[in-house]
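Let's practice the habit of predicting before peeking. Look at the sequence and jot down your guess about where helices and strands might fall. Then scroll down.
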Amino acid sequence: MTVEVHRVVEGQPGGEAVVLSGSLGSDLRMWDSQAKALSDHGFRVIRYDHRGHGDSPVPPGPYSLGELAGDLFALLDSLDVARAHIVGLSLGGMTGMWAGAHSPDRVASLVLCCTSAKLGPAEMWADRALTVRARGTGSIAEAVVARWLTPAYAEANPDRVSYFQEMVTATPDDGYAECCGAIERMDLTADLAAITAPTLVIAGAEDRATPPEHGRRIAAGIPDARLEIVDGAAHLGNVEQPSAFIDLILGHLKSSS
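Done guessing? Here is the structure:
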């Protein structure tokens, strides 16, 4: 069953729709920079909180990527959008891959950022879910954000470190844990060949959560996909290198329109 996710819609009402789908433990604010740039370039920008995140509902689990993609399609339906470009980072990229493989008619193009088609070991996700259920998302916020950002960026921007730690801590415990379960059970490797949408894969050169080899495997598995590796970027590469990411995203969207 789908849920009505919290969303913000910006930009040109008549523009091509671009959906921004975020990472585990984040909310739609992680896309602030890209949302403004895409709006300024004439797109209709739709960003949202995954189920169990931000201001979206926290339905009982277990969750699956199919259900997360179903929430996305329900969001598009509620806005009368038949087909959209999907830009997803981490969990958002996983959701985008599932959507592209299973409902290609809904996906105009894909930008898959700092993500993976299979992210093990499964035990790591099960253990993290157990930790969050027992001690709360605040107990893992520092470690999570340490993987999101490069040490250099974190040292130079302590206010941003605090901002993202607070974002993780604000994520509902059950929602975070159930999304861990969706990643634990995920294996999209066999689905990649079914993706027909024009696809750009972006990896962060310093991403410890989903290192560049994950992006390479995705790009190799999707027909005609292109891979770009951005220097000076960890897992939230769009935050650390906003200009590089928006240039790549805009270039891909324009070539796919």
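How did you do? The CA atoms of residues 85 and 108 lie 5 Å apart.
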